[in-house]
Design a protein that fits this description.
Number of strands: 4
Radius of gyration: 13 Å
Length: 71
Amino acid sequence: NGVDAVVKIREFEQKQGLRNCKVAIISACSRKSEIDSLLMRDGKVIADKFLQKPVGIVHLANNLKDLLGNS
């Protein structure tokens, strides 16, 4: 699943001394506890942004600009 993949990416970045790449999670989850668990795990940030499905193209584009503009 995508969250497990992001956790592995974060572990790799840490082991290699790399800066975290930007990650946005797009999911149909709606409960705050679910969303929080997608953004943080074991006190560590695993994703920079959460977008709830369905995501319109303008909303997606604006969030990606925001995410990548802060690199």
